[in-house]
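FORM 7B: Structural annotation worksheet

SECTION A. Query
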Amino acid sequence: RGSGTGNQSEEVGQLGRERAVVRDALTYIATGDPVNLNWLGPASTEEVAAQIAAAVGPSGPNSEYLFNLAEAMRGIGVQDPHLYQLEARVRDIVREQQPL
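SECTION B. Predicted structure
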């Protein structure tokens, strides 16, 4: 289903496990729809990390969302090398931006 923002929503029953960790979830998938002004588009891990490190919304820094997501995925045993690589790079950028 479209949301009018260029994102697509999908209902997810159970994914990739014999025992579901989350059931009947709703997830949003960013698309390249021109209406979606927040989609970075095809980008390297470095470009995505820079965007996440700089982004702040009504709920706070996007980096905190990423850090919490990575922690939660580790907590349920999800192996996602791309997520953890992104997390490490964003942590480095955030650390570099802090005043001495």
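SECTION C. Observations
The radius of gyration is 15 Å. The mean pLDDT is 81.

SECTION D. Sign-off
Analyst initials: ____
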